[in-house]
From TrEMBL:
Keywords: FAD, Flavoprotein, Membrane, Mitochondrion, Mitochondrion inner membrane, Monooxygenase, Oxidoreductase, Ubiquinone, Ubiquinone biosynthesis. It comes from Nicrophorus vespilloides (Boreal carrion beetle). Signal peptide: none annotated. The gene is LOC108556788. Component of a multi-subunit COQ enzyme complex. It is found in: Mitochondrion inner membrane. This is Ubiquinone biosynthesis monooxygenase COQ6, mitochondrial.
Length: 461
């Protein structure tokens, strides 16, 4: 064999060896490389994984959901409800229907809100929203556990979605000068990479911190006290009640004929006091919050009565006609809990190859029941836009495409959040001129059905 032939064969062997090593390395990298990694599960993260997995335009993409909690297991117990519920708007219901999970919720249970009555504890000015003026019910009250169970079961049926439970994330290395992929470093030493990283890891998002984006946030110095309440009379329980008190609003949300869910926003000291009361005294406190007459400046009552008379002469009906709230009979044992309330909003939702979803991008006061709906809206929007991007031949996670998501969602989220924050501040004072102004404004809005319908349509979007 000539030297030239020998060198040629050696070159071929080295080439084949390099190819074998390359293929082996690609295979090993492929096990830990995903097109999309979702950091954080819960209701929004799992719904997002399901939406992406069921999107026909993304069917070839590998998706990894990193869920910090243990594998979720829940069984519906007849007559026993969880104390954590959400008020889903009609758009969220449509989103769940598109995922194939609303049937599971229907087969379970939910409360339907067909009327809302909101009133000021310092003036009794009120506003009502009813199903009569709308195509859909005002909201659907569903337990968090039921939603998570439904979306989790659906996600597990998808071949292109992998769920890793008890996933403890140590840190992130985002794509940039050193790498064209995102890296997720796990506590156990594993390392996952992806083209697109989606942060669904809550208000204290580590993904957001790794992105180094500015986050506006503040605490409301309030706690949300939740519980499951038994009403004194079984009836057609379809009304959501909310009364604005000096320390924060109290709301009853319908679950079943004789059951409602309590969400009571109040000061941390008052919340601690309420959690420590015996059950019967806690029930008395709830009834007092719904029925107690608060002392107000006399001229506030005079002005609101005069304004009601004026509006009645214009529209032919009185704003003062109201339905009385129910009496609470008892408390579901062990259902009391409390959580802190605050505001948060990331100035930017996206960077190249990274996007924030849900509470990682925004946090809002629960007084309007919009927080989780904003998150589900993010998930629906992002799934749609990513599908369109791939269909148009774009690179998954391209910054220009992600900017479309940021723009579309901020146009919706920011006005909603500012309106909710404004309401919290407007009703968190006993200053008489402000009480008068907000009371007359509430009366005026309640008198105009087209305006109320517009408000409800906005809240359902």
């Amino acid at each position: 064999m000539s030297g030239a032939m020998w060198r040629s064969e050696r070159a071929v062997v080295r080439f084949l060896q390099r190819r074998i090593i390359s293929v082996r390395n690609y295979s090993n990298a492929g096990d830990n490389h995903f097109d999309i990694i979702i950091a954080g599960g819960g209701m929004v993260g799992t719904s997002l994984a399901t939406a992406l997995g069921k999107n026909s335009r993304l069917s070839s993409k590998r998706i990894l959901l990193l869920e910090g909690a243990k594998e979720f297991s829940w069984t519906l117990q007849e007559g026993k409800y969880s104390n954590r519920v959400v008020a889903l708007n009609p758009n969220t219901r449509n989103f769940f229907s598109s995922l194939g999970v609303w049937n599971a919720i229907e087969d379970g249970r939910y409360g339907t809100v067909r009327k809302m009555q909101v009133w000021d504890g310092l003036s009794n000015a009120m506003i009502t929203f009813s199903h009569d003026n709308l195509i859909d019910p005002v909201a659907y009250i569903v337990e968090n556990d039921l939603i998570l169970d439904a979306v989790n079961r659906e996600a597990k049926t998808l071949n292109n979605v992998k769920i890793l439970n008890e996933a403890k994330i140590k840190g992130y290395k985002l794509k940039g000068h050193e790498s064209n992929v995102n890296s997720v470093v796990m506590d156990n030493g594993n390392n996952y990479t992806c083209n697109l990283l989606l942060g669904c890891d809550g208000a204290n998002s580590q993904v957001r911190k790794a992105m180094d984006v500015q986050n506006m946030s503040w605490n409301y110095d309030q706690m949300g006290v939740v519980a499951t309440l038994h009403l004194s009379e079984a009836n057609d329980n379809i009304v959501a009640w909310q009364r604005f008190l000096p320390k924060g609003p109290i709301a009853l949300l319908p679950l079943a004929d004789n059951l409602s869910s309590l969400v009571w926003s109040t000061s941390p000291d008052e919340a601690k006091h309420l959690l420590g009361l015996p059950n019967d005294q806690f029930v008395d406190a709830v009834n007092g919050a719904l029925w107690k007459v608060h002392t107000t400046a006399g001229f506030v009552d005079e002005v609101t009565k005069a304004f009601d008379g004026f509006m009645q002469s214009l529209i032919g009906r009185s704003n003062a006609v109201r339905q009385l709230p129910p009496h609470v009979a008892s408390l579901e044992d062990g259902s009391r809990a409390a959580f802190p309330l605050g505001f948060g909003h990331a100035i930017n939702y996206v960077k190249d190859g990274v996007a924030l979803v849900g509470d990682a991008a925004h946090r809002v006061h629960p007084l309007a029941g919009q927080g989780v709906n904003l998150g589900f809206g993010d998930a629906a929007c992002l799934s749609r836009l990513l599908g369109e991007s791939v269909y148009n031949g774009k690179t998954l996670g391209d910054l220009d495409d992600l900017k479309h998501y940021e723009c579309e969602r901020q146009r919706h989220n920011v006005p909603t959040m500012l309106a909710v924050d404004g309401l919290q501040k407007l009703y968190n004072t006993e200053f008489t001129p402000v009480v008068l102004l907000r009371s007359v404004g509430l009366q005026f809005t309640n008198a105009l059905d087209p305006l109320k319908k517009l408000i409800m349509q906005q809240s359902a979007a």
